[in-house]
Every structure is written in C-alpha cells, then in structure tokens.
Records
---
Amino acid sequence: MKKVQRALISVSDKTGIVEFARALVEMGVEILSTGGTRRKLEEAGVPVRAVESYTGFPEIMDHRVVTLHPRVHGGLLAVRDNDEHMAEAQELGIEMIDMVVVNLYPFQQTVADPEVTIEEAIENIDIGGPTMVRSAAKNHKYVAIVCKVDFYDDIIAEMQANDGCLSLATRQKLALEAFAHTGQYDAAIVDYLSRQYGNPDSDFPVYFAPWYEKLGTDLRYGENPHQRAALYARIGGVEPGLARAEKLHGERELSFNNYLDVAAALEAARDFDDPTAIVIKHLNPCGAASAPTLRQALEDAWSGDPISSFGGIFGFNRIVDAETAEIIGNKEFLREVIEPRYRAESGDEESTIISAFPECVVAPGYEPAALELLKQHKNLRVLRLHEFWHPDREVDLDMKRIAGGLVVQTPDVESVLPDELKVVTEKQPTPEQIESLLFADRIAKHVKSNAIVLVQGTRLVGCGAGQMSRIDSCLIAARKAGKRAEGSVLASDAMFPAPDGLEAAAATGAVAIIQPGGSRADDEVIAAANKAGVVMVFSGMRHFLH
C-alpha cells in the first residue's frame, strides 16, 4: 500500500472535482493545482497550493506552458527507492507527488463540430496534461494517476478504508487506463490531422487509428467452440452501435455468431422506412417484409421461410408493440398460422419446421407490455438500440481485416430511388411492380453475393445467397419460394454477365427483374429478357456483400 500525501489536480472536465479534492484534504492530502481548477477549488473553500508557487515559474503563453517543469516531473518520475534520485530531488527542492488527477482538453468534442476551424482544433490539443498522465503512469509503482471522473468514488472509498493508502493493484489498473486514455487521445488527433493535412482528394485518412475497448468478460467462444472470442466497442465512433446496445432480457450472453447475425438484422431493418421485420440466419435474410403494421410485417417475414428461421435473429425498425411481441417465439402461432400459410403458399409439404425459437430480438424499443411478453421466453435475448438511426452512421467507415492489415470502405447506405430506374425492356413495369422491385433491391443489398431474391409485394419469398454462380443462386431462390416464385419480382445484386443468367432468372417464374446493368453483354441480356417476356429495369447501383 502507498500513502497519498500530495496530489496535483488539473482537470478540463470539473465534474465532481470539488467533492473529490475535499475528501482528499480531509485525509491529509496536500493539493497542488493550476488555472481554472485551482480557482474552482478555492471558491469552494478547498485549500490549494498553486503550481506556479511550487515551481517558482508563472503560467505563460496563454496557459500553454504551466506544468512542463522539472519540479513537477521530477516529483512524478523519481524512483522513491533510488537513493540517488531522492538525493537529487532534495538538492533541487523537488517534492514528491503521489497522485495526479488530470483529464484532457476536449479535443474530440471540439472537432466533432463541423464548423470547427483548424486553429480551434489545434488549441484543444493538450500537451501538459498527457505529459503528466504519462509520467505518473510510468511511475505507477509510487504514483496514482486518475484520468476519469468515473474513478473518483472508488479511489476515495479505498483510501478511506486504508488510512489514505492505495494498493499497487489499483495503481496498476489506473496506469493501464491512463495509457489507454492518452493512446486514444493521440489516435483522435492523428485521425483529425490526417484528414486535414493528408490527401485532399481522398475520403480516407493517411493514418487510420480507431481505438477499441473490451466490454465485459470473454464471449463463450468464437465462430466454433475451439476458438476464443471477445467483444470490443469503438471509442469515439460516430455511433454507439450494436456493441453498446442495451440487453433488456436474456440469461445467456450473446455469442460471437449472435453479434454478427444481430448486426446483419440491424443493418437490414434500418434500411426501410415502413414498418419492417427482418429474420436473419447465418448473416442472410431468410425472412423480410414491410407492412402497415409491425405484427403483419413479422407474420409475412416469418412465413417466408419458417424452416430456416429456427434459431434466427428478429430485427425490427419500430418500437415493438404487444401485438407483435405476442407472436415472437410463439409455438402455437407457428403451428396454427405460420406453418399452414407457408405450406399453402409455397407448396412445400415435406420440409420439417422445427420450432419457433428465435435467438435474439433487436429493435429501437419495446412497449412495457411487449417487454413483459418477451421476458416469458427464458433463452431469448432482447436488445434495444436507442440511437437506431444515428445521423452519422452514413459516414462511418466499414473495416474488414485481412492478414497484416485492413481494407476500409465507406458504408453501403445508398439505395436506388424510383426516378433513377431505367426500364430497358419492351414490357413496362406496373406501379406495383416498381414498389416490389425497389423492396427486392434493398433486400438483395443485405444478402451475401452472388445474391438473388424473389419478392411478392413487399415480402421476401425466396433467397439464393453466397453462391459462386448467379445461376445457382436463381435455382436456390426458386426452390425456396416454391409456388410463390410464379409472378414474383427478382432482384440481382450485380449484373448478369451473359444471357444464361437472365434466362435462369426468368425461369424462376419472376415477371419483373431489377439488376444494376453495366455488363458488356447488356444488349444480349436485354434481348433475352424481351424474348422471355419479362420486365427488366436497371438500377445502376451494384450491391455486392462479401
């Protein structure tokens, strides 16, 4: 244990600092402080010694140079067990500082303002603060570094219980937090300056320095039981996102695979404006529908493929009401409504529909009565994402790891609009077909490439995902849809490079097709569409998902 006898306090965020400093003084700790922090403590009646009176050197250059002084850093970095260090300190009048309480200039908050100037940003780059933090953290065997308001209560409690002392374990933990804090702070500066001083013709910074922190304990395992896994949240990201979603119910923690599937459900659900339900299995939609009510959307989506939905993820883009919650995971509803509807519509009388069990539900919120209904399912994890449509999510960068690095891209948040469609066939689409084609195109965006989806109205009825050949995806989508393929509309996430792909698409029973176009064989593909008597429109927008 190490007794704290002298603390240097200099904070930008002054939340709780008066109470914290007063508690230190009551335990006999001498307080050194600077500038605004010193004035706030003095106004509150907390005895304070000015840093400049200790160093014998005034604050200069508009407070740019205050604590950058040998008497400060000698008091922080001296090895107390080193006789030479201590003799040197005594000769130079350097007093030991046992605790540093510092939080940094609000650089990230400053540059988050789109109107900020480069001069304002530069002035909010803290120099003295990070230097003190790192000095104290380096010498944590003797010095405690406190860089977050969240730590105040625990530190005071430990000191009060131990005659003003802090354990080495606590100082080690505080040092780790301190280095993480300055590391993330520097990463934010690098990111900002890379955008200002890097290549002005690029959307991407010269140095990309995202910063993450581990949340909670390790996950149960990774994609497979022999792999280990953990959850990290990005610090300073543009949206809190799924990593910081609130779990309202569920005894079991989410697994590695759960998080990936919930992320897929979230991205698909928030791509639609009308009440929409999404059912995800292994990163692909096996059910999706928009409808006037959320309950109807769920029934339409679930009955699209109730075979695959077992153990799936349900995503909603509306606050879940009791009427919708009543049928989530409801075995009777599955047997009495979903299964008969699926078999009648698809013609599939043989496939086994195992159960109504969903793994997770994610939504922007839940009515109280709905949440109580969902809590009746012991193994169901219920997640709420408060900022479901975060305004800045469209500018966040999408990262994918490769060996030795990352590939980074802007997110695929765009969707084609009705007036951007180009009808390329002799046959013209009806207004109803246009609505269905646009829905199908948005769903195809969330299906692993090569993606083919079949849609009736605004309801997914067949999905062919992740195949090496677009023809194979057509065959799978048609088999999934069964009788529902007849008269459907079809979306392809990318162009048909040859007429045989279009012929396979038309053979599904679809009467209208949306695809990006852009193939060298477009003229031949259009001719094949005209020969098959189907409508075809070009969206001009590809949606590969790897």
---
Amino acid sequence: MISENFIVKDWRKIDFSFGLVYPNVYKLGMSSYSIRLLYFLINSFENIVCERIFLPDNLKLKFPASKDYSSKNYLRSLENKVLPEEFDILGFSLHYENDFKNVLWMLEKAEIPLTSQERQEVITKSKVQLPIIIGGGPVVTSNPIPLSKIFDVLFIGDAEQTLKLFLEIFQVYKNSRKKLLEEISQIEGIYIPKLNNKAKRAILKNVDDSPNPIFQLISESPGEKSIFEKNFFVEVNRGCPYQCKFCISSFHNYPFRNRSFENIINIIENGIKYSNCETISLIGSCVSSHPKFKQICEFIINTKKRLTIPSIRIEHLTPDIIQLLEQADIKTITIAPEAGSESLRFALGKMISNEKIINVLTQIRNSQIRNVKLYFLIGLPEEKEENIEDIINLLKSLDQLGFGRNSLRVNINPFVPKLNTPYEKEIFFYLKDNMRDLVKKYQKLERELKKLNTTKLKFKNFKSIVKNAKIQTIFSLGNQQVSDLLLSYYSNGATLAAMQKAQNELNFSINEYFLTIKECYSPWII
C-alpha cells in the first residue's frame, strides 16, 4: 500500500498513546470522515500519539475470537505495528450496530477482558495496566446503553471540545482510573456507565470551529479498486434541515449547521496544496442544502479535481445543478425516494411527489449522467400491501424513461427504528408474527422488478436481511439487559442462531421487549 500523510511519532517522546479503532476493514474505515478528523485532532497534541487499528483484511472472522485461530499479530496499528493492549486508550468510532460484534472480537483477540467490570478486576488483582476503552459515533449518541457493560467511557454528540477536555484530564489522572472517571463524568457529552451520570449531548455550535484536516490520509492499494482512498474530504455541514422521521442525523445531530463558504474554499485550496488527492468529496447529511452549494461545486470543477457528492435531495436537482454535475463528469447520482407511495413519503417528512421524481430522472436521462442509485425502505409505519405495489409502479414508470440496462441501481432496506427519533416505537414488523410479511414483500419486489431491463437489484437473501435488521433493531433500542444479550450473542458465535441461544440463556424475549418499547418504554433519552 502506498500512503501519504501518515503521522508517525517517536513513542519515547510522548506522554500517552491512543489507538483509534474502526471496527471494520480498512476500506470502510477510510471512507469515514470521522476517522480522518479524529486522527488529525488527537495527533495535533504533540505529547500524544494516535495510531489507527482496523479489522484484518482478507481474514474471515470466526466468532468468538477465542475460537478464531488467526494470530493476534494481525491486529496491530498501521503506523508502528503496535498491539491494541499496548495503548493507553482504545477509542472506537461506531457507526453501525452490525459492528458491535466486531468490537468484542477485537478486544478478545487482543486478550483484553470484554467488560469494564472484568478489566477493573484484572487491574486490581494483577496490578497490570489495561487500556481505557472509550467509544463514540452516531449509534452511541442514539443509545449507548447496549454498550454499557463493555465501554468505560462513551461520548454523546459532537466530539471536538469534549475530546480535548477528556485528553487533558486523562493526562493528569491516567494512573488513577477511579479519579479519572469521576473527573470526566463532569464533562458535558460524556457518559460513564459505571457512574450512570446524566449526560447531555455535546453540540458544536459553529462548524467552522471544527478543523477540517488539511493533511489527509491518502493511500492507494495496488491491484485493488480503491474506495475513497485518494479522496480529500470536506465537511460542508452537519445535521439536516428536513427532519425525516426515521433519520438519526436530523434528530441526533441538530441543529443544522453550515460551514462558511470562505472556510470551505480555504480548506479546498490548502487540501490540494498539501494532500496529493485526485478527488474532492463533499461530506454532510445534506450537502445540497448549503446556500452556496452550486458555487462550491463550480470552484472544485475549476481546480480540475474530480468532484463527488453523497445522496442529494431530489428537489435540489434543478436543471442547472444537473448540468453542473454533468460538467463535473459525475457518472452516478444517488437519491432516496424512500417510498413509492406519495402519502407514505409525505408522512416520513419527504414532501416530494412521484411526478417530481419522474421529471428529475427524465432530466438526468437527457444528460450525460448514466446511472442513478435509488434507496427505498420497506416495513415503514402504516405501510400496506398496496405501498409495495407503489414502489413497483414507480420503478416501472422510471423504466420507461430510456435508461440503459442496469442503470437504475435499486437498494431496498428494512426500516430500522432508532431511539430518540419520532419513529422509535415503530417495531410492528419485527414482532414475531409479522416478520414473515417483510420477507413476502421482498419476494414480491424481486419477482416484479427483475423483469425491468433498466433495474439492477442490490438485495438478496431476504430472510437473512430481515433477521439481521431485527438484530440491528434490538441493539438500536436496547437497555442494560440487551447489553448482556449482546455479550451472550457474541460468545455463542454472533450468528442468527446465536441470538436465539442467547435469549434462551438469559430468559430474555426480544418479542416481549419490543412490546414494552411499543408501550412507550425508553432506555435512553438525549
């Protein structure tokens, strides 16, 4: 791997070390702006070394790690090949509930006890040093409770100022775990499960105060298709102004905040100067809501660098924006209608008509942009059988527009309720007697949509998709009992069968727990 802008420090000249962990493989981790930002922020302290740790590539994991016979040497930091247990702090960036099992695998492979209590017992009894285990990210802000038995410290909300205060306090109390936890529990935005302190979500009021890294990690993997490796990321905004009822960004990351146009231009200019990038990637939940989105894109195009954007609001795809993206040589646009039914879509908070979608895709078809990714949800609140027909009928209408074969890449995912959003109680389709309905919906969609020449379906193995979505839902909405369930699920192999075995061992019923959620029980309120 060819790499630039790595930060390699002399461990003899630092006060403490921070292992920055993304609990999945390198390519996924490096597609995360959070990893680049945290790496930059922590290494900006001269007395702290921060090195990255990912899951081993090209290694099929066996759960639990005690039954995985690969060498623990696979799990070392990229920069200095340091083992996880040799760091003073291990900080996990968590974006998806599906990665929870990977957190446990990495800890066990590193021979670090899985729970905070077990680690404290080892420290007290054996007088050995173990890293303090901390975590943050969208799923932690949404609901840290399922992770409460595992982590020592959990960050709620924006991390910039909170992390700085944490590191300053750690410097003083790193040799006294008890005093350290007491001191940092006073920081707004930090939750200490052992102390069960009241944590308030930390909010960075001005995105300009977040230092978008100029020296970004740029890498290239020979012989492999790179994903975001040679991209320079620019955070345009945080949060989302539209407040779709299922979306964690709208409700866990409010208020909506734009970085200033002047700051963005300065970042791009310096990024091109100091990072050998090929592409400028705009980052944000709704980049097209920036009041100077068009001017930002025009500036990037004029630098002769490639431009990429995330999913874009359909109503923002005006003829001049489509022409601009065409000029940027963008080959694929990503949109999220979410539903085929206008009434269902309006109920979500997306006030976009089917006529508008068809008109916009007609304009795209008449441009040089050849592909469109479309994201839909099924299992939405109040969804009826005819709403599945609505998805089919909408895609049949788009099929008539004249796109090429497989040009419409269709992703259909089960709706997963998130705590502290308006749809947090909507678990109907994950109740035991209703899950088969989700599978039937998938079967019908596949049967009808595979007939369309323009449509490429990006889903398969429906039963597995639905069961995994149920597991994701229990971790999304879970309480401290679900923290025990997670540990048992992992130790039994982290499979669908393992979840049933874990329920039996703990005399816990996911179905009954979902019914308590439906009756307005909430384990965590931010």
---
Amino acid sequence: MVKSRVYIVASLIAFSFLIVIIRLFYFQIIERDYFLEYIKKQYYTKEKIILPRGTIYDSNNRILGISVPTVDIFVIPKYIKNKERVAKELSTLIKKPYRTILNKLYTKKHYVVLARGLDKSLKERLLTLRKELREWNIGIIESSKRFYPLGSIAGSTIGFVSRTTGKGMEGLELKYDKKLGGGTGNILVMKDAMGNPFTIENEENLEKSHDIKLTIDSNIQFIVEDVLKEFVKERRPKEALILVVDPNTGDIVANATYPNYNPNRYYRYKNHKNITFHNAYEPGSLAKPFVLAEAIDEEKISFSKKYYCGEGSITVDGIRIRDHKKFKNLTADEIIIYSSNVGAIEIALKLDPDRFYKRLFSLGFGKSTKTFPGEASGLIRKDKRPVEIAYASIGQNWTATPIQIAMAYSAIANGGYLLKPNFIKQIINKETGDIKKPEKKVVGKVLSDKSVEILQKILKQVVEIGTAKKGRSNYFTIAGKTGTAQKYDPKIKALSDEKFYTWFAGYFPAENPKFTVVIFANEPKRIKKWEFIGGGTVSAPVLKKLVDRIMFYYKSKPDKNGGEYGNKNPSRN
C-alpha cells in the first residue's frame, strides 16, 4: 500500500515537472518573441534621438554647419509626486511656460517629452534639480541638433537639417545627406517595477558620417552678402543675387541670394529657394556675345565694316522689335559694346538656325548642371522662324539659370571650356581620415580659340567704355556684359515697360581671370523717376565695390594702367 502511494506521488511529481518543462518550452521557444515584446512594453520605452552628422567647413576650415550635443527631457507623469513644483522649477530652468509644462504633467499618457534640443550645459543642473526634488521620474536623454555659426550667411546654399528627422532637407545638407550621415537613432529607456527610468539600454541605426569642406570662402561670402544687402536696400527688388565662381576650376566661391534665410530657424521661413539654381530667367543681352561667337565660327561677320542698326527698331515677320537707343551704323564689336538689339538681330539672322541653337545648348543652356537639389533646367524652344531667332539672339523667349550664365561666361574667361560647377573641395572620412578630392570636370570645348580671343577684347571694352562702364574699377580690369530683359505683364498681356530683369555677367581681372561674377535683380526699383532701368544702370554699378573689395582681400596688385582708356569717349552706352 505504502509502495503504491510512493509510486502515485512520484508520478504526480514527474507529471508536474513535465508540465513545467512543456510550459517553459512553450514560453521560451514557441511564444518567445511575443512575450519578449510584451516585457519590452512593460519595462522599456523606445525613444528617438537625433544622431550627430558630419561637419561642413568652408575652404579655410571655418565651420559652416555642425552637430552640437543637446539633451531631451521626458517624464512619466503618473509617478511625478509634486507636479506644481516640478512645473515651476522646470519652467525657470528650460525657459518654457509654467502652464504648458503643468498640462503635460497632468496628461494620462505614460511617457511625455517636455523639451528637446536643450543645451547640454543644462544637464548637470537638471540632474541636481531631480535630486533636490527627489523626482526620479524626470529623465534626461543625450541627443544633438544642427547649428550654423554664421547664421544666414550662405544660408540658402548650405540648407538645413530637419529638427525631427535629423536629415538634410534643403541645399547642400540635402545634396550630401548620405555622406554627412546623421538621422535618428532608437534608444530603449529601461524602467524598474515602479516605472523609474534608470539606464539607456542600447542605440540603433548608427550611421557612418563624413566631414565636408566646401569651395565657398566665407570671407568672400561676407563681402558678397554685404554688397548684396546694400544693393537690395537701395533697389528693393523682388529677388537678387551675386554669384562668384572660379572660371578655371568651376568651384563656387560665394553665392549670396535674396530672399535668404537663417537655417538655424528655417521653420520661420515660407520660402527656402536658392534662386541661383532653382529659378530660370530671360538673360536679355547676355546672349549677344554668344551670337557673335557663332557668327565668327560661321564666318558670317566682318570686323572691318559697319552694320546698319535700324535707328531704333527692326521689323521681323511683321513684328517690330525696338532698340534701347537709335543706333545708325556700328561695327561688330560696337554692337556688343553698346548692346544694340537691332545689330545683334541682324547678325543672328545671317546664321544657320540649327547651328545657332546648337551653340546655345553646347554652352549648357536648357540643361540642369545637377549641382544643387531641385535645380532648374531653363527652357529653349528650338523655333527656327526668323522672329524667334531674333528674340533668342537678344535673350528673350528663352530662360537660363544664374549658374548656367556663370559657367557660360567662365568659358569665355578660361579659353573656351565649359566646366561643371562644383561645391566640394574635400570629403573626409571621420573614421579613417581618408580624404577624397573631386577632379575638375570639363564638359567640353564650346568656344573656338578665335572667338574667345575676340570676345575677351570686346567684353573688356564693354566695362571700360560701354554699357557696363558704371562698374569700371580704377584698379582692376574687368570684362563682361550687361543684360536687360523686359518681363511679361499678364495684366496688359504684353512686355512691361516698368518691370525688368537686370544682369551683369563677366570676370576679373580681365587679363588673368580669377573670378567669374553674375549680378542679377528681378524688378529693381528706380532711384529717380526719370532713371532708365537696365543692366548698365542697375547691376553694373555693383561691380566696382565688389571687385575692389575681393581683390584687395586677396592682396592682389592692381593690374590697370590708369590712362589706358583716358582718350576714349565714355559717353555712349
């Protein structure tokens, strides 16, 4: 009897162990993932943090964009004992309204973030406050945020990083987002049985990041921004820009735009455009040198004779096109120097239409340079009708971006080569220290040596005695061309006599070009009621102070003979 009872008890014990083993197998093997997830929900809170990304430098190693360490503050409201005092103390410390904090402390949510992106210097004070209040359910997580030390300087070019995703949203921050790294990482905040946070379990999604050194020289950028600011104050345009490029490498040295924005406060601005890349405009008379270049190569022009310029107008396909002055007879170089519309049209109508349009496309017009996110392409309609050729020759009825203009004029400066614009000087691997330097990219030879030689001489004269003479420097030679394009006014359904695009595009020093410059304004206002609005009166005058300041910053020796043009007649424009 006793023996049978022992067997029964032993069987029950064995059976119990078997049930336990089966249950353990069920929990640990079959339903393991489910219960781990359940435990995590009970004892962990997943929180996102902004990960640091690579630093952006200018060409002189000055910081333009950097990730700075910050702290985020969170609470578990139901375990905060003295909510009113906590709200009062935190309000003073983190500079947030008392009522806002208090409302969050009374929420029914299990986990609430009170503030993000606070300066890391507050961390010790927050820890001390938590200890003094004995409120252990105030948690602190280390994170980071993007900071731009120069504020709005080159803001529309550098772009910005999202405060919530840590990823580049505009400008070069977006263009090189993958290289710069960053983004968000997940951390698990562990809690004890009472819900008290006491440690960070792990981090996920850590990405490798690179530092980037740009071709932008912040000192030149300061000069350009300062000159543009004064220009905008005086002329009150809708938009304006000054772009400076190295014509020998394609490197973008400075790019100032109006409107602009401060990337530290990007969320306060509705417009984040960079008009140098995002917008295309009619180039006006900036097109004329390229018409002459094609005429030289087709041998359709003579520099030893004068051309009749219509005394103020020309009629093509029954449409009358006006000139800005009543020119009678001009030589080929004078047509460019004094910017005669009729003269340029007369030359253009002698050209092979297919070759004419091919020339414009070869110079990079009508196609994005793919240098900047969201970059426009401009538009050229290959319309061979004489009236369309006429308008195209004076830069009307087609559009170009300012960066396209800069690269086309750089081709005149560097001997005829179209280069791809470039922002990057170096990309530095933060882990290995390896440095990658992009090579100069030559798109192609787009201007003949003969046309370049002639254009260089003519464009120098444009600044010395022609339409750009108001930008003439006393110290440095400048070559370039002014441009004016009438805007279409939908109210009158015709070209406006009040609204214009004004341009200057050129390079300096003329004999040994170091910089290409583009100056643009959209609807600049008159200073005086009788003033004529045009590239020569609006954009060219910016040249003198800009060129002199840049060249003296580089401690360049003046290259100009003061009496070289002393006996020329400067009264024509």
